[in-house]
Amino acid sequence: MRLRKYPEADLRRTYGKVLWICVGLSAFVHFFILVVYPSFEVKAYAKSQEPVIIQLEQIPETKQQRRPPPPPRPVVPIVSDNPDVPDDATIEITDFDFLADLAPPPALALEVEIEIEEEEAEYAELWMLEQKPVPTRRVDPEYPRRARELKIEGTVVVEMYLNEQGKVDSVRVISGNRLFHEVTKEAAVQWEFTPAMQNDRPVRLKVAVPFSFVFR
């Protein structure tokens, strides 16, 4: 059976006609709008704001009041075996100064430590230098007779404080047996170094040097 298409259902036949009808209607509607509303202005919507009323309260002025002094301490009765002393006897206030004849306390060791720290701050440390000092004169300490008799060995570490010329101003013992302290300090003071350089100028320096004592 051959299918047949009805002319009423063929949209291509009326396509041009429908298109021109729609274009004409659209043009008429636009022309009508232009005639009725020749100008179009947009007005911003202004929101009405209610005024804000701020009310200030009268705050009373405050005053700082000092606390009243504490009440006096109660009187403590003195317990005594003497029958002549009344029961309501108390200790009266005296003007005698018990600390008047006492000597002032000795100065604290903290002041000495602070002075040592300030003095050490004037000397640079070895790691801060651009040119390290080189020993030009070495003096070996003598072996103490007491340590030799007891056959005691050890190492003494001293801290030398050098001036700008490389000479030893003072010596401080850091560690080691006390039998070797004096002879080590006497020998360390005689050491001499080349000047320590920092920023192309000689500076003071503190350097630690070990001295070994070996019994032979």
What does it look like?
The chain is of the alpha+beta class and 216 residues long. Among the domains are: 9-34; 122-213, 2-Layer Sandwich (TolA/TonB C-terminal domain). It has helices at residues 15-36, 109-121, 145-149, 181-188; strands at 135-137, 154-162, 168-175, 192-193, 196-198, 201-203, 205-213.
Short description:
The chain is of the alpha+beta class and 216 residues long.
Q: What order do the helices and strands come in, and which of them pair?
A:
Layout: H1 15-36, H2 109-121, E1 135-137, H3 145-149, E2 154-162, E3 168-175, H4 181-188, E4 192-193, E5 196-198, E6 201-203, E7 205-213
Antiparallel strand pairs: 1-4, 2-3, 2-7, 5-6
Radius of gyration: 54 Å
Q: Could you tell me the mean pLDDT?
A: 78
- Counted by DSSP, the helix tally is 4
Query: Globular, elongated, flat, extended or rod-shaped: what is the shape?
Result: elongated
pLDDT < 50 runs, ≥5 residues: none
Quote the beta fraction: 15-25%
- Kindly identify the CATH topology of one domain: TolA/TonB C-terminal domain
